[in-house]
Amino acid sequence: MLTDLLGFPPQVLFGQLLLGLINGAFYAVLSLGLAVIFGLLNIVNFAHGALYMLGAFTAWGLAQFLGLNYWVALFAAPVIVGAFGMGLERFLLRRLAGVDHLYGLLLTFGLALVIEGVFIKLFGASGQPYPTPAALTGGINLGFMFLPWYRGWVVVASLIACGATWYIFERTKLGAYLRAGTENPKLLQAFGVNVPLLTTLAYGYGVGLAAFAGVLAAPITQVSPLMGSNLIIVVFAVVVIGGMGSIMGAVVTGLAMGLIEGLTKVFWPEASATVIFLVMAIVLVLRPAGLFGRVA
Amino acid sequence: MSAAQGHAREIGGADAAERIAEIHIADLHAYYGESHALHGIDMTVHRGELVTLLGRNGAGRSTTLRAIVGLIGRRTGSIRLKGEEVIARPPHAIAHLGVGYCPEERGIFASLSVEENLMLPPVVAGGGMAVAEIYEMFPNLAERRRSPGTRLSGGEQQMLAMARILRTGADVLLLDEITEGLAPVIVEKLAEVLGVLKARGYTIVLVEQNFRFAAAMADRHFIMDHGHVAEVVEAAELEAKAHVFEEYLSV
Predict the structure, then answer these.
(1) Using one digit for the tens of pLDDT, what is the confidence trace for A268-280?
(2) What are the E-state strand segments in A120-173?
(3) Where are the domains of chain A?
(4) How far is C-alpha B47 from the chain's CA centre?
């Protein structure tokens, strides 16, 4: 096999590829949410990592205080956090409509610091364990590698979320409104579509996706106040690489960057933390609008 | 034109006093940021009428349409649509009174297919045209329904911009420079479409540069200058008031 020629046991290679695929799945779901939000609000949502963390904490809280299991949390947490997001949009972000992008960045960055600060104060920075759901413990030996069921599920669930989002955007009437609202919100509103409401829903949906990713991550990482801020920097690099314009671009770039990161861990472990930023720098030089971005 | 023809046009009633005012604008001021674009417009358009807004670039014609549909942030005065005051209403609420707007830049969405563009504006009233009827009126659109909206030629994009507001049931149409930059054969097609719409009783406000295009169909012309309505010319007065057009429209 090729891998033997290169001197790496297949277990190592495929193990890292799986890890990369899982990270890529998180990048995809998070950058997808950012793309949806940027499309309608023209805001780079720096609170995204904190909202991802809120999703994980909501799942943890539902289990801790209400005894609700993972499967309930997987649906309930995105709804709860999404509703919180809609409140943020309605009462804070909406006030920034029409002003420079920089203000949206500052406000959402500030919100992230406040939310994370509150959770550090309440729960400490170290994190809470969250059990893997019983149905998905263990795994299967595929011969060339061991696949833990839960990790496989994370990839499948992320792809389902991405596919559903793509379907909504590209194949439904609501999606046509969202695309039109991204291009020319004023004209869409003059046609009789309640664009302010659409914008609130889009923010809620993007935030809901972040929370969904947070719940998926809870059993893998730990539920800790800073889990989002560690991840979000890479996600922003992914968004820059893919370009803000496209749903498909966010998904493909997210998965691809996860895989590249995984491969780099095999071949040159020291570079694995930087490789995505290297790709970002190259893309910025060659295609400033991103791989899938529309050049304005 | 004779008085008899004048009466035939009036859908609201036999006497001028009974005609129904679809659009009634009083002392309308509008601002783009610091710039004061409309300086007290007064204008009434009755049901079933086709009127034009004429004037040079920057006279305030497009701004008047944008103000009616709510796309100008700061406006004062009064705009009554079908009897309802809309000066403080958001654009989406105004559209639902049965107003269809066709912007000067056409506003075809690049990320939507032709058919998605056509189906995009929500239905705002009953009695809109069926999609089959629209495709019959604009056969080019039917052929290209799967193409991205902005792959169409300029003329096709203009037809799409018109067609999509006919589907919604809007019976007050605000059309901004629909013939601008189009080939004569397309302009002819648009004139034909306007004739059909007028015969069906639509109320139409047409912003035009092409006076010949508009003159044949219009009941009245509002001549705009520097954010005012400088003159109102009835269709019957076209010859008598020819000097007005010279004064305000010649470059």
Answers:
(1) 888 888 999 999 9
(2) 139-141, 146-148
(3) 30-223
(4) 13
